[in-house]
Amino acid sequence: MQLLVAADCRVEVCTSPDVILSNEQIVSLIGHKCDGVLGQLTENWNHELFEALKQAGGKGMSNYAVGYNNVHVPSATERGIPVGNTPGVLTETTAELAAALTLAAARRVVEADVFMRAGKYEGWLPTLFVGHLLQRKTVGIVGAGRIGQAYAKMLVEGHKMDLVYYDPFPQPAFEKYLDGYGKFLESQGDEPIKWRRAESVEELLPQCDVVSLHCLLDDNTRHLMNEARLNMMKDTAVLVNAARGPVIDEVALVKHLKDNPTFMCGLDVFEDEPLMKPGLADCPNAVIVPHIASASLYTRGGMATLAAQNVAALVNGYPVWNKQDITPFLDMPIAEVPKAAPSIVNAKELGIE
Ligand SMILES: O=C(O)C(=O)CO
């Protein structure tokens, strides 16, 4: 709010009690005059909304999110409207939640918590809530971007897990880091960790005790984890999704969880968010949380800053920042925030890089 006001914007805040706004509601909020919009990942930014924004004189829109699968970017580009997002501030926070889901699922933390609260604990038993040890097992990541790599490092360094990664593009800096960590372990008289890049998801799945999804949602990754691929995983594996719900065929997952009680999953996102597919909530082997992977104070504040600065810059005609490092925008006195839009996803298409 302060950034927008300092950039001479009159700010209208939506006060609707509805958590998810319909496009009709958003069109009416845009009204006849609106220079820019800061929107949320629950909104469907299609041609209808971009047309309404264009007609209202809109110069830009920013998603309050790093992911922008809810935005039909070509519709914005066609109308000359830049679209912002908020990269860089979610990495560690999201990776930590994926790691939390991994540990909670592997060690059955939620089932055990429910058991305690129900007053069922009668004393220690050798067989009570026995789960899976992660130390020195193998973790697989599908998608080795910033968040995938941060998550992998947490499990590799924290639990000395071997790593298999699948990403269409090799990640040399990440590989160098993994080699370096292996050498460090060796220098301590410890066994080095092993890592490899898999040629396909199919190659990765059967080798891993934990698989965490960190890919974008697009036509190639929708239902990536379908019945056939779930069946390729170990029946004691842990599957984690803090990416986007539709990457997993949730109906197939519910069936898989029911057929394989030792298979565990940790989900932050759901195919028909905010709904869950029937049966999922009844599976004790699923740990489920409501899309909170980016919910740390640091990250939500950073997302707000970046999204607001995207809008403030676009409505004032400032240039695009054009650098990966967005830290100059964070925790700065307002007067010192660079006069630029931190991250515009269609900058290249619009020729404003
Ligand atoms: O920024 C995103 O893409 C999110 O999913 C927020 O948690």
UniProtKB/TrEMBL annotation:
Q: Which CDD domains match?
A: GDH (cd05301)
Q: Which PANTHER family match?
A: 2-HYDROXYACID DEHYDROGENASE-RELATED, GLYOXYLATE REDUCTASE 1
GO CC annotations on file: cytosol
PROSITE patterns referenced in this protein's UniProt entry, alphabetically:
D_2_HYDROXYACID_DH_1, D_2_HYDROXYACID_DH_3
Q: What is this protein called?
A: Glycerate dehydrogenase
Q: Which SUPFAM superfamilies match?
A: Formate/glycerate dehydrogenase catalytic domain-like, NAD(P)-binding Rossmann-fold domains
- Tell me which residues make up the D-isomer specific 2-hydroxyacid dehydrogenase NAD-binding domain: 100-293
Annotated family: Belongs to the D-isomer specific 2-hydroxyacid dehydrogenase family.
Record's InterPro entries?
A: D-isomer_2-hydroxyacid_DH (IPR050223), D-isomer_2_OHA_DH_cat_dom (IPR006139), D-isomer_DH_CS (IPR029753), D-isomer_DH_CS1 (IPR029752), D-isomer_DH_NAD-bd (IPR006140), NAD(P)-bd_dom_sf (IPR036291)
Q: Identify the residues that the record assigns to the D-isomer specific 2-hydroxyacid dehydrogenase catalytic domain, covering every copy.
A: 10-319
Q: Which UniProt keywords apply?
A: Oxidoreductase
Q: Which organism encodes this protein?
A: Pycnococcus provasolii
What GO molecular functions are on record for this protein? Answer: glyoxylate reductase (NADPH) activity; hydroxypyruvate reductase (NADH) activity; NAD binding
